[in-house]
Amino acid sequence: MGELTKQVTQVLDLFEYYKSDKLLTLPTVTRVSQFHPGQLIRRFPLTLGLITINILLFPVSMGLSDAEVTELFKLMTFVSFDLRGDLVYFTDLEHTLDTHQYWRLLTPMFIHFGWLHVVFNLLWIWEVGRRIEVVNNASVLLLVTLVSSLLANLLQYYLAGASLFGGMSGVVFGYIGYSLVWSRLVPTKSMGLAPGLYIFMFVYLALGFTGAIDLLGLGSLANGAHLGGLIGGLLIGTVAGLLFRPSPATH
Prior knowledge:
Elements: H1 2-18, H2 37-43, H3 45-57, H4 71-76, E1 81-84, E2 87-90, H5 93-98, H6 115-135, H7 138-160, H8 169-185, H9 195-210, H10 223-244
Antiparallel strand pairs: 1-2
Helix pairs in contact: 1-6, 3-6, 6-7, 6-8, 7-8, 7-10, 8-10
């Protein structure tokens, strides 16, 4: 338990560094220190809802290290699978669609494979997701979440094949992509994320494809999911930015 506490503390320290004033300037509209819990729920209902759902569903994947797989976990993976001894037999995407199990296209975002995985992802969901929710609204945040999750899962499947993957990291990259494009197209309503944060995330994405991060022993990254989520966020950000971009002044 002491080792787990140490790891979580390290994640929190790292997160605080990346969101420090050197990398990120938090716009006044999203400061939360003056709000009590009830006000936070009313102001960021979807962001907090996503965090809550992930926390409630986190125990579903806790038994994987002991080869204990629950029926709920089996229902949340991108494609269904069976365990036969020590072997895992996956179906494919065609089977998922033919049997109308469409929820599987999205539910992998609620699967996390360890405390570090879920804590780091949810910190970024809170930090970036609430900005989108307050600058735009909950419906835009929901759209970015769904599109980013869908493209993240599809690209991960097509690049890596059937496997056990999950997490909100693809959605996080979707939020980053959306914030980048939106802030460029509608600078008067910028999300307030500093350029250093975008650079860090893009370098992290690129390093993931080299396999260098996997060598740290923290597990294999779902690089396809990261890229797919980013593409989803960039697409929605472009559409939203063009729709809401202020008209140029006429003379």
